[in-house]
Amino acid sequence: MQKYAIDERGYYGEFGGAFIPEILHKCVTDLKEAYLRIMESDRFQQDFEKLLRDYVGRPSPLYHSKQLSERYGCKIYLKREDLNHTGAHKINNTIGQILIAREMGKTRIIAETGAGQHGVATATVCALMQMPCTVYMGKTDVERQEVNVKKMEMLGATVVPVISGNMTLKDATNEAIRDWCAHPGDTHYIIGSTIGPDPYPDMVARLQSVISREIKEQLLREEGRDYPDYLFACVGGGSNAAGTIYHYLNDERVRIVLAEAGGKGIDSGESAATIHLGSAGIIHGCRTLLMQTEDGQITEPYSISAGLDYPGIGPIHAYLSSMKRAQVLAVNDDEALKAAFDLTRNEGIIPALESAHALAALDKVIFSPGDIAVLTLSGRGDKDLETYFNVPM
User: Fold this and answer.
1) Which residues pair with residue 288 across a beta bridge?
2) What is the third-level CATH fold of 57-88+209-389?
3) How far apart are CA 114 and CA 378, in angstroms?
4) Which residues of the chain have pLDDT under 70?
5) What confidence score (pLDDT) does residue 1 get?
6) Where are the domains of the chain?
7) Cα separation, 57 vs 262, whole angstroms
8) Is 214 a catalytic residue?
């Protein structure tokens, strides 16, 4: 991963770093000094692998989709993160982070969530480890993800609806950071994506890299080679994308295609396509690309998908795009909905709206007959049923 790895200052090229209030300096420095030591320890490795296997249900299957393969004239596999416990890739990260928090002596967990999947995954591991948990969620997302809110509360978490700003993921993150500033000593903030101050982007990517590690093993078994020609994933903050591509970053044989949320179109004023619309700036503790006005005020993003309507993007993805290592495509709401219904009716798999953006990106690539593509189905569509039910059949 050398060429695309984070450097000793916590940057991917010009993106990354730790831009934090003084009160959080010790928290973040302590985490930076501890996370690799803990993650590389025998105790962590044993606990993490055991929980991934026996609790999460890993490895997640690599499923050969015959109908997608026939449609696009190549071989397409779906990496089934939707089959994990709690229904998404998010659990890989929360289990790892709570083990790190426990090792560091933290006794309280906070988190932010948009689509609710990260909130559910955090509440789940807090119930497992018997730690108190507070989840911040924008009021807009609370209303469109009611089932996940009820799940979090059933698991024992306190869900705090955030009524500032657009009342979505950005605003929930702001409130979580305020909480962290008020309780820096005993609290660990489980950030749900490859965003935030260093070392979070690297730590989350490492914890999610179990996805690409398994893809290598599974492809070798299925195809006699451990790499695909294409990797597809949706990208908002970018944790499932980072996990999908982690072990392939230096393998130039593998083309990386990421789908961000175009909303109602990148020229509509209602979009979350940060790579297409963003410029360099600082958000939530790191320097990355973000949607902002000329005087640096953050622009409110929009997507039909609660997990992708974030005005920034993980610094690793900003860097990969700037280096032309990853191709980032904007997928609008209608394209994502069509892809979701196509997969549902042709394969019997209801995908999360986030994953549907990656599925729609298949339409924007021209494949050769011998190509092998792996697409990470980051989550299941249970949380999005209300949105799907409102689409005219």
Assistant:
1) 281
2) Rossmann fold (3.40.50)
3) 14
4) 1, 393
5) 53
6) 22-51+90-204, 57-88+209-389
7) 33
8) no
Relative orientation angle of helices 25-39 and 42-51, to the nearest 10 degrees: 80
Nearest Cα residue to 218 out of 358, 373, 66, 59 = 59
The answer to whether residue 112 is catalytic is: yes
Q: Does domain 22-51+90-204 have CATH number 3.40.50.720?
A: no
Choice among 79, 355, 378, 383 that is catalytic: 378
153 is catalytic: no
pLDDT at 2: 72
Are 22-51+90-204 and 57-88+209-389 the same fold in CATH? yes
Burial classification of residue 361, based on how many CB atoms lie within 10 Å of its CB (0-12 exposed, 13-18 middle, 19 or more buried):
buried
Q: How confident is the model at residue 54, as a pLDDT?
A: 98
* Annotated active-site residue in 79, 90, 106, 383: 90
* Displacement of CA 59 from its chain's centroid (Å): 18
- State the pTM of this model: 0.97
- Could you count the other beta carbons within 10 Å of the beta carbon of residue 21? 13
For residues 300 and 346, what is the distance between their CA atoms, to the nearest angstrom?
Answer: 35
Structure tokens at 120: 């559910």
Question: If we measure between CA atoms, which residue out of 387, 333, 38 comes closest to residue 206?
Answer: 38
Catalytic residue from among 81, 112, 260, 335? 112
